[in-house]
Write a structure and sequence with these properties.
7-stranded mixed beta sheet, alpha/beta, 13 helices, 5-stranded parallel beta sheet
């Protein structure tokens, strides 16, 4: 039996472990976090019927997925910086891209795995190739193990990627500042109304605000700025009041209900610099190791990341199951499909960034939505 080690218990790594389990193949997931609840898991995800939902079906957890859908979450609205509503689309109820909480989706995948599959508190410290596709993994707690298949599902700053590629993610020029609001319909009503019932986009050239309604009265926002990394680094985010003031100054002239998404947040602002690998990132086949998710193709956020990671995990698991005793054939088949899929998605992500933050924003985003809606009905 092939010893399979998966680094990272995100959606992609867990999906791989689950699809392998469905096919009677054991794997171990090594996760740096001490427990499933060691840190917040982020906000809402739109899971697409053409990729993420297919992966969930392959994993046999689609019914559980449908029970965590945030009803009405597909609604979308576009505003200008003055808060004027320019475009609105309701949730059509078709389930084409329903919204679910990332943490709940991860919980479903975790609970679908046999006890002991995920080993917590196992941060990868070093990897050594032993030849013949085998690798020795050494963890920060001093423990070690050997794999015949090593899968890097460990995100943008993957420790596994250097075995395959020397390419590192580059800063895109944008940083998102994350904020949260609780009991928003009562305590932050103007901002909640601006967001609508699903996702709200308030945009201008070079900057914008993304708003997301979540269950239980939560409003989640990202303030996007086109700034150099040293400008961001100069802000003391330990001093929440000073950080809010500095960021808010960049939104001078914006509507109060939008600007308050930084000044009145219930949490300290958190900077999220956006990095990406080159669109066509790929590597030569190296025995006994591969990548999935952000480790393979981190890109600007455009609603595809979680879907791609789950598809990667599902397709890799299916390829291994379809090629018993022929691991290298399985990895070659998986990567042959992975590379063009990721390249196309990365190009799409750059297009989304351009329509959101280019010189014609926000009208360009409205045109994008309209074109995609029309194409869906042709």
């Amino acid at each position: 039996m092939t010893t399979i080690g998966i680094i990272g218990a995100g959606l992609g790594g867990l999906m791989l472990a689950r699809v392998l389990h469905v096919n009677g193949i054991a794997a171990t997931v090594y996760e740096a976090d001490a427990s499933p609840d060691a840190r917040p898991q982020g906000g809402m995800l739109d899971i697409h019927e053409q990729d993420g939902q297919l992966a969930l079906k392959a994993a046999g957890v689609f019914d559980e997925f449908t029970r965590i859908i945030h009803e009405g979450g597909q609604a979308t609205r576009v505003l200008d910086k003055h808060g004027k509503l320019l475009h609105e689309m309701g949730d059509d109820g078709t389930g084409g891209r329903p919204e679910v909480p990332r943490g709940e989706l991860r919980r479903i995948l975790l609970e679908s795995l046999p006890d002991g599959t995920v080993q917590w508190g196992r941060k990868l410290a070093a990897v050594t190739s032993l030849g013949g596709g085998r690798h020795e993994l050494v963890f920060s707690d001093g423990s070690a193990t050997t794999t015949e298949l090593l899968v890097g599902a460990d995100g943008a700053w993957s420790r596994v990627r250097p075995l395959l590629s020397g390419t590192k993610p580059a800063y895109t020029g944008f940083t998102f500042i994350e904020t949260w609001f609780f009991d928003a319909d009562h305590r932050h009503l103007p901002s909640a109304q601006a967001a609508g019932s699903g996702a709200g986009f308030a945009l201008a050239p070079g900057q914008g605000i993304f708003m997301h309604r979540e269950p239980d009265g939560v409003l989640h926002a990202y303030l996007a700025l086109n700034k150099p990394l040293d400008w961001i680094a100069d802000i003391d985010f330990e001093d929440a009041a000073a950080a809010k003031s500095r960021i808010a100054a960049e939104f001078e002239g914006w509507a109060p209900e939008l600007k308050s998404l930084i000044t009145d947040s219930d949490t300290a602002p958190v900077p999220r610099p956006i990095h990406a690998l080159p669109d066509g990132h790929r590597w030569n086949r190296v025995p006994g190791v591969t990548l999935l998710g952000d480790a393979a193709h981190v890109m600007a956020p455009a609603g595809d990341g979680a879907n791609l990671a789950m598809v990667d995990g599902a397709e890799l698991g299916q390829a291994i199951a379809a090629n018993p005793g022929h691991l290298e054939a399985a990895l070659a088949a998986y990567e042959q499909a992975l590379f063009p899929r990721a390249e196309a998605a990365a190009a799409g992500a750059r297009e989304v960034f351009e329509v959101c933050f280019g010189m014609n924003a926000p009208q360009s985003l409205i045109g994008f939505f309209t074109a995609h809606l029309e194409s869906a009905y042709k």
